[in-house]
Amino acid sequence: MGSTCYISCCLSWKRIMGIFFLPVILSGFASCPKRKDGKVNPSSCRSNWSHLSPLTLKKRSQGLVGKNEHFTLEGQKFLIFGGSIHYFRVPMEYWRDRLLKLKACGFNTVTTYIPWNLHEPERGQFYFSGNLNMEAFVLMAAEVGLWVILRPGPYICAEVDLGGLPSWLLQDPKLKLRTTDKGFVEAVDKYFDHLIPRMIPLQYHHGGPVIAVQVENEYGSFDKDAKYMSYVKEALMKRGIVELLLTSDNEKEIQKGSVKGALTTVNMNSFKESFFISFRQMQKNKPILIMEYWIGWFDSWGKKHHFKTVNEVEQTVSELINHEISFNIYMFHGGTNFGFINGAVYFGKHIGVVTSYDYDAVLTEAGDYTEKYFKLRKLFASLSAKPLPLLPQHTSKTVYPSVRPSFFLPLWEVLRYLNEPVKSHIPVNMENLPINNGSGQSFGFVLYETSICSGGHLQARVHDFGQVFLNDTVLGVLNENVKELYIPEFTKCQLLRILVENQGRVNFSWKIQDERKGLIGPVRINNISLEGFTIYSLEMKTSFFQRLRFANWRPVTVRYLGPAFYQGTLKADSSPRDTFLRLPGWVSGFVFINGRNLGRYWNIGPQETLYLPGVWLHPGNNEIILFEKITSGSHIYSTDFPKL
User: Fold this and answer.
1) 551-639: CATH homologous superfamily?
2) Is the pTM of this model over 0.85?
3) What is the spatial order of strands in the sheet that 588-593 belongs to?
4) Catalytically active residues, by annotation
5) CB within 8 A of 2, min separation 6: which ones?
6) pLDDT one-digit tens code per residue, 237-254
């Protein structure tokens, strides 16, 4: 976002301040009467807890304080009822709907990560507009009446590619991520020099809704540099962050991830009274905040869909209230890993995170109410001295006519519409390609071509998935476990092609250090290194699809074997609504609607539908383009219900 937009946001915040901040204290959650066993019965609670709101608070002298057993806000006891929503995973047109639903459920706080890799995809090029307008999201939360906790990283995990770190950091193999390594610190400092000034006016003491800021994320699980957390804390403070600072770690790593001057918080999946007893002993005279109560879990390709029962969630939240423990539900609304932003896990094998970030959350991926929502709303309503806000209207879904792609282009006929290829003596990994102003390639595919004059045993190290072709004939695949294949003998020299897909960089653990994509190292046939490569970058940005409009598309007549683009038309009515796309018969690839990347589909599951927001559709004709890696199906179907 440019300077004009930044000033505009600040002015709009001042207008909000002048219009909405009245000296009224809303009713809220109770310091409840104890039973004989010393616990609280939630159903008997009424409000001694303050539920101050950005909409109603006038006095601003004491922000969120965590110096006793309970948080205070303006000197009044305050219990955080938080829920996570990531603005970058939700179409901006739906932000208000999701925030209103959070408020209507009975929550008083929204938490969000800030993804460095999306805000600075190229060195020194910052993006804070459109769906990345973090300030607009925070200001909208204030308008709705919610407090905000920001989690700016620099590392965030969040199941996004490389845990939110920009991939250009991987260009230098000697640079050590998440440490006080000079190269990493310099990059963080430049990012914070741009990010923190945007956060400053959003803070509580500046009239904004931000009551706390997290220092990094789950560093106890990484723990490679004893000085690192102090560095990040000081980097935030010296740039003007004045609100309560937090750390956030899993139960076993809370001490390793903590730093003096910041409140230690914990991430966990259930209530464990014995843990909280020891936690209070470790951090005496401080309130407890569960920064992430995992209400569900994310899914990975080829694995089962995760879920957590409604009764389990209700019981855990009731116990937290019983013990007057503040908490943040992760996720209240998960949203979608649109485009290529999904991360990956590594436990002996690289497995990508699916496109949906539904997370079995309180709201579905598409923002619909769930049984968890109504159970929690009923529980929270029993604690409030005043009625909760009315429920926002349900976002209706629809079914559109099926789409049969009419035209296609084999990948080999698309190469002319890509940017100029890179010529290199040896293979170059994705991050080190001399493109994007020297920042390399973050996402998508890379095609490597070279001439060979004999067959034999091909050896190559591929991250993550490589298809090998002789001219346009597929020979086989390479991945982290398959590092060689046999090329049959042939006459005359032929074109060897290796198409490599980045299926998501690992977002957690030490593996982030070794997540370069593409061809890593030499390519050999019979132990002889190949030379003279032409390298095409397939980032599939909007500009690429604009150029494809001038391509000579072929009519679809037979099923094509091999990577290709398929074009069809989805017809919407005058008021387009949300839907879900189903792709039976298609194998693996990506769907683009009007140039927007809906994400990856893959027939190994568990996800079988892709969420299509109605706000991304035009009345009438909408262009659908599929990039299918293996072989085509016949139709693209629409459904009003997801299958995850």
Assistant:
1) Galactose-binding domain-like (2.60.120.260)
2) yes
3) 554-555, 407-410, 564-572, 620-628, 588-593, 596-602
4) 218, 292
5) 129
6) 999 999 999 999 999 999
